[in-house]
Design goal:
alpha/beta
Length: about 300
Amino acid sequence: MRKQQIKVGAFLLSMGLALTFACQNQEELASSSTTNNSRVAASLVDDNRVVFCHDGNLHDTDDLGALPMGIALMEAAGKMSKLVHVDYNNHIGCSNSGYASAMKKSVDISKSDLGAGSVLFYDYKSDAANADVNFKKAISETSITNKLTIIAAGPYHSIYQALSGSTSTQRKGITIISHDPWNSKHDCGKVDDDHPAGCKKTSKTWTDIKNDYSGITFKEVANGNTKLGNNLNPSSWSALTNASNWSATGKIAMKALYDRVTTNEHNGNGQSDVSDATMVYYYLHGVENASINNVVTKLKLKWGK
């Protein structure tokens, strides 16, 4: 009887050890799986340094809202330190002084209300020389291990200028993102209602950069006008002013953002177009053709209740 009890005890002990080992092993596998899933999720986020290049000083309907929206998305993602250069009003042909001033307001609220106080902004129309110096510096620091993404939200003149003098090694670390064939072809040279006779021709386009600067990665994402563009009006962005969505500081930030997204300083037709911001969303989250709901969800990470 005693031998039988000993055998039973030994059996139960061995089963207990086996069960403990199995549980530990299962926990390790679960931990490993969680870590791997985190790595997969993190890999969707482009961790390159980034440059924004906007116009807004002529004819475009989206830059007044798209620039601060892109800034807000950067802040919400905790990536503002990656933004090493912003140029705006980079339509060097013709320029509308009222539009250019309105873009400056968008820059100001980006600094004061949306977290971009330490970011270097350059009005390209009035300060191209200093903009070129800073942009070239960002490119000079670029390599395959220190990459740079350029958000092309306007004509390509400022990008082309900054690439002059770059090396093939530097260019292998550069990605240029566009979303709309208009910017890809835009050379500021035609004469129409938006480009009066006498406009200075930029002459450099997306195709020119491809032809003249080898090694760069070019990515044209889905056209942002589909969901963040020209069919929107102020009511489309009502979530930004819904007090139940936002913290105390969020209410201030989102009111400032809403005012720039819906301003009629630029868009006499009542559009509330931020289509260029679709490229920033792609840079941050690896998703093309973002919707308003996608954008608001990300903004809540920083400013939501």
